[in-house]
Amino acid sequence: MNWYLRSMNNHDTHRGVLCRGTVLAECGIAFRPSKAVRPGPALRGNPHDPDQICPQCDRVKDAR
């Protein structure tokens, strides 16, 4: 699974899968990823700023 930016707000980078242009996140939300990520849509590696990560998606990642 990859990390996707939903918005520039804190806690709005989510871990999930891309399906037909929509991210299905570990936390249960679905959204179109931000076009701010280049080359996108997924981030390369893990998010650099822990304040950007969705706490629910981060807990799921850590539980595995």
What is the compact description of this entry?
The protein is of the alpha+beta class. It contains one helix and four strands, in the order E-E-E-E-H.
Structure notes:
With 64 residues, this protein is α+β, with helices and mostly antiparallel strands. 14% of the residues lie in helices and 27% in strands. The chain contains 1 helix and 4 strands; from the N terminus they run E-E-E-E-H. Strands 1-2-3-4 form a 4-stranded antiparallel sheet. The longest helix has 9 residues, at 55-63. The termini are close together. The relative contact order is 0.29.
Beta-strand percentage range: 25-35%
C-alpha-based Rg, rounded: 10 Å
Extended strand count: 4
**Number of DSSP helices?**
1
H/E topology pattern: EEEEH
Keywords for this entry:
single chain; 64 residues; alpha+beta; 27% strand; globular
